[in-house]
Amino acid sequence: MSVDIDTVKRVAKLSRIACDDARAQKMQGELNAILGFVEQLNEVDVEGVEPMTSVVEMNMRQRSDEVTDGNKADDVTANAPASEDHYFMVPKVIE
Amino acid sequence: MSELTSLTIAQAREKLLGKEITAVELTDAYLAAIDEANKTLNAYIEVTPENAKKWAAISDEKIAKGEAGALEGIPVGIKDLFGTQGVHTQACSHILDGFKPKYESTVTQNMWDDGAVMLGKLNMDEFAMGSSNETSYYGAVTNPWKAKGDDTPLVPGGSSGGSAAAVAAQLCAGATATDTGGSIRQPAAFTGTVGVKPTYGRCSRWGVVAFASSLDQAGPIARDVRDAAILLKSMASVDVKDTTSVDIPVPDYEAAIGQSMKGKKIGIPKEYRVEGMPEDIEALWQQGIQWYKDAGAEIVDISLPHTKYALPAYYIVAPAEASSNLARYDGVKYGLRVTGDDITDMYEKTRSQGFGDEVQRRIMIGTYVLSSGYYDAYYLRAQKVRTLIKRDFENVFNQGIDAILTPATPSSAFKIGDEEMAADPVKMFLNDIFTVTVNMAGLPGISVPAGLDSKGLPLGLQLIGKPFEEEMLFQASHVIEEAAGTFVPKRWW
Q: Cis (ω within 30 of 0) for the bond into B372?
């Protein structure tokens, strides 16, 4: 399978990565090289094989449902590019 | 001064506890060495001298009081992927500009609890995506090794290139690293150091910047097998904060070193004999087999039939997981923000300027293979292939094999700015051809320096073990180290 320019642009949009025509052109070749490489997986007979969900056979550990953390609004917003009163500031979203 | 930095962790530990040297002296010696070398090698992207001196002084007090921890006063470097409280943590990406976490990763906290001293943060491929350390926002790292009679600067491998270069050039006693497809073992092989990728679940992933969560695993890069064992003992733990951390006590890895290999079965997989592999590497592999025969081990030819599909399956699974892990970088919560016309424009501009080319490629591939209509053909199939790869290993271990011996890399270190690798992303991927199977199956692996090639550059052999049997890897790799010795680059920087 290979991707065309429109698909590259659609994937860029889904990835939230700005992608102009020149960049899409370059990406197309690179993505197709990678997709070409992974194509060989089609040779493998995977009939009846369970997909891997965990490399280690284990039951996910459960913990008791209790509050162990919190009241860290200062810490949570400390690294934000823009924040005010413990809110993350973003450009206007609703008209 | 250089005498102090040439001590292994085991040697420094003895001298510190014997009061022959102080932790402050040792730390000062490393800081001076970094000061001299880092402009040339670019292994550290942030040095923390004040903290280091303060911690070293505390270590000296603890040693005086007889309260020394297992790594008391040992100066270490930390890969930039590990969250270190109040200190530069950016996965060597532009998108995490200025990020200083308010928390400490479990692995580094374990080391500080044991008394280790942090010298600074080490260079790496951006988000651990790369095999040459050239994708770092902070520039390439130069390998302390050079080919005989050739001044060309070489890569240290990646993604833990800064860790490997710093250990090889004696700019830290040992370093933390991470391995998603070979990022500990390949740079260790390229720099003549020992690198351990533990079993998935052995070291907590908590507080480590995520790349591909089902494959990422932290481990040490060290100067010799014993130092690697000492470091892993400290780094590994059972951690309630990581749900994939496995509830098995951490053994004393050092105790395994020197145990006899008599009667142990070493598997030699025929699928690792790849076309176009340099003669030097084939010869080294044969040499390794001979060393095990001499040590009384039994050599068994084995087959891991799905080996060749590990790398293509990896390049579906890893980008898929990366695309979702890296969705959090949006210019809102931390790091870089590039303003835009509206919020979507801001996201898109931030991510296109904040992520480097390799990271963008992988996010795009990951998004594509997970997108509607393609999931079954790519991601689901890759996860099925992964089951088959793991089954190959289980079959072999069920036959009684104790460890598997393979080359660590298909070549020695290559030059910085290699045109062929730059032109073809897949060519760079092939660096991980011998290491990636281990991540896909969640197994432990170690890369040990085993010799120099005809150019005078280090080559490593890899040992692969059963889940949570890292002890066997330390036991077995010691045989190679005893026979081959250790390797230190000639100082030119």
A: no
